[in-house]
Amino acid sequence: MSPSASSAQPRLAVVGIPGNRRVGLFQDAARAAGLAPARTVSWPAVLRGETEFHPGETVRVDSPGEDPEVDRLLRGGDDPTRVEGSARWYARFTSAVREVAEAAATAGAVLLDDPGDIAVLFDKRLCHGVLDAAGVPVPDSPTSGPDGAPVRGWADVRALMAEHRMPRVFVKPAHGSSASGVIALETAGPGRVRAATSVERDEEGRLFNSLRVRRCTTEREAAVLVDALAPDGLHVERWLPKASQRGRVADLRVVVVAGRATHAVVRTSRSPMTNLHLGGARGDLDHVRAAVETAGGSWSAALAVCERAAACFPDTLCVGVDLLPSTGWRRFAVGEVNAFGDLLPRLTGLPGSGAEGLDTYGAQIAAVLDRARKDRVTESP
């Protein structure tokens, strides 16, 4: 996966937030590969119906996050820290991605991200169902797939937990990201409930994301949160006991580019949520590999699980896979697959991945160049 651009010079465009760090890192990778800067098509312009591409462009769809104007256009609110409105956000976002795809096809441009894949990746219920149907190990879930059980509120959550013998579950907004609205829920009999979440509720009942994980110790507290989140859609899955590193629970974000696991980072936390912005910390990947091998497992097999998950979305160049190691480091399951899970600054490629020395964006540029070379060879007389 060499970054050399000597044999092909694709013209790049990126749908993103101008000045955002994601777009900046992608531009840095293009520059390092000797390519001209990607033409930026702003999300505000897309949402105003002003999408335009040029013939022959290779188009990357990037995250619409971290911009208050875009969040307002998608969610309909004025505060990007609010949790509610994710169903509206999803409907408007996926509609906009479809419009991007249509505009690209009309112009003769090529997308690196499939709108159908993105629609599934941003619905945890659908994504879980696709993975499960493909034989990818995932936590048990009664809400999985298009025919999964509906969750209208706390009573449904309690009933599903009892029916499926799940005393510990994660309750997730179907269209959330970055642990927004996620509740790690434990029950131990009638009225005995504990929950961990980053959601805060103000005096008017509005829900906000915070940067700290707090504990709920009563059923009433948990019920109020679930009932407030339910109208936007909820996904419920078994809370798997995870392995630990130095006394902290651990999981991994593995980036898969063009079908190959290229980058991995260990995330550790003292709370059930390992997201780095919620107080999680990067762990030691060498220690993880050693722990897996010592336990009689296979690190290459763990990466293969991620590649199998990514293969469910073959028309999308890059995804980030949340890999959940079981206690003892021998088995792994996939928690989620993320369309925009590649923001891991300064992280270079795994040994043997073909992306050594490249960050996640450099690996994607290299994959685009490899694809362009192959296309040129195919087209040669």
Distance between the termini: 25 Å
What value does the Rg take, in angstroms? Answer: 21 Å
Average pLDDT over all residues: 93
Shape: globular
Helix content: 25-40%
Count of separate DSSP helical elements: 11
pLDDT < 50 stretches:
2-7
Query: How many β-strand stretches?
Result: 15
Quaternary structure annotation: single chain
Biggest sheet details: 6 strands, antiparallel
Name the beta content range.
Answer: 15-25%
SSE topology string: EHEHEHHEHHHEEEEHEEEEEHHEEH
Structural class estimated from helices and strands: alpha+beta
Describe the structure.
- The chain has 381 residues and is α+β, with helices and mostly antiparallel strands.
- Helices cover 33% and strands 24% of the residues.
- It contains 11 helices and 15 strands.
- The strands form 3 sheets. Strands 10, 11, 12, 13, 14 and 15 form a 6-stranded antiparallel β-sheet that branches. A 5-stranded antiparallel β-sheet has the order 8-7-6-5-9, with helices on one face.
- Strand 1 (11-16), helix 1 (21-32) and strand 2 form a beta-alpha-beta unit.
- Helix 1 packs across helix 11 (360-379) and helix 3 (68-75) crosses helix 4.
- The chain is globular.
Topology (elements, then pairings):
Layout: E1 11-16, H1 21-32, E2 39-42, H2 43-47, E3 57-61, H3 68-75, H4 86-107, E4 110-111, H5 115-121, H6 124-133, H7 154-163, E5 168-173, E6 183-187, E7 193-201, E8 207-216, H8 219-229, E9 234-238, E10 244-245, E11 248-257, E12 260-269, E13 281-282, H9 285-294, H10 299-310, E14 318-325, E15 332-338, H11 360-379
Parallel strand pairs: 1-2, 1-3, 3-4
Antiparallel strand pairs: 5-6, 5-9, 6-7, 7-8, 10-11, 11-12, 11-14, 12-13, 14-15
Helix pairs in contact: 1-11, 3-4, 4-5
